[in-house]
């Protein structure tokens, strides 16, 4: 404001300031003449500024003039802001790259029915947690510190937190928090007996992550069989399916969890599909940094093949794994047949995300349209 109480004309040069003042003016109450003047001033000038601004700013101005945030439903306001923020040059990349949609897309594929809403949320949290732990073991952790982390986690006690390194304390607390939510939800449904199976599956995952860390540290190139024996388990599907079973109600009794622990053929095939498709899509990038070899490198090394020949052989193994899944879905089974849909759907979502490249790391261009079709764009009626 100038000394005479009028709005400074120089504000016209500050387009973002004008937008902020315009939005703030809609919070005015009776008797606030300054904000009344601010609204009239900004509205008149923003109309002309929209034609002179960058396309990004012009879109924001046009939307604001049509739908000020204070008159906008909160979810639509948040969604619109996110879209604008993604185009900001000064955006915070840490915030911009947080990955929530991808885990939810995977969990929604496992079971999408409305009665599993709460468990889908918990499953998405579990998936996000596993992604953080995977990155920690894969790229940042030191073997001795990670061994200590696993030993401590086996106690499942918050009091053990002080025994860990600072960076693992944060992850340890996050693991306990997520599993506490799982325990609470299972308790409400009378299914507390299931939770130890989920914890055991998570610990087994960490032990296999640790084996990969040792390979990386030692510079060891395992045989293809040795690699797959570990890497199919770090595909992460075992703990995810186990947590899914926890939320399935009486259809997944104790015999279903024992069946999972027996490494049934359909789970082996699903893990093979997840692991090999992930490796084919991401191995070139992964090998640019210190990283244990993928199935591609192991197969090339063991059989002295070119990359193209190794990829052809791995594609055959993928087709064999799909045939295994098909056979298992047709045979008599020791568990309710509906439960077989979970590993089948896990294989399907793996195919969707990795068929053209690493759609989990780079959803645009690989799976963005599919995700929009599922969650954003309604079916025309």
Description:
There is one protein chain. This protein is mainly alpha-helical and 381 residues long. Helix content is 67%, strand content 0%. The protein has 19 helices and no strands. It has helices at 15-25, 33-49, 55-66, 74-86, 93-96, 101-110, 117-140, 143-153, 166-188, 195-218, 224-231, 237-246, 254-261, 265-286, 295-303, 307-330, 341-354, 363-366, 368-375. It is elongated and about 75 Å long. The mean pLDDT is 87.
List keywords for this structure.
mainly alpha, 381 residues
User: Can you count the beta strands?
Assistant: 0
Q: Could you estimate the helical fraction of the residues in percent? A: 55-70%
Please describe the biggest sheet, giving its number of strands, its sense, and whether it closes into a barrel: none
* Poorly predicted parts: none
* Shape field: elongated
Strand content: under 5%
Number of helices: 19
- Broad structural category: mainly alpha
- Residue-averaged pLDDT: 87
Order of helices and strands: HHHHHHHHHHHHHHHHHHH
In angstroms, what separates the terminal alpha carbons? 51 Å
Radius of gyration from CA coordinates: 26 Å
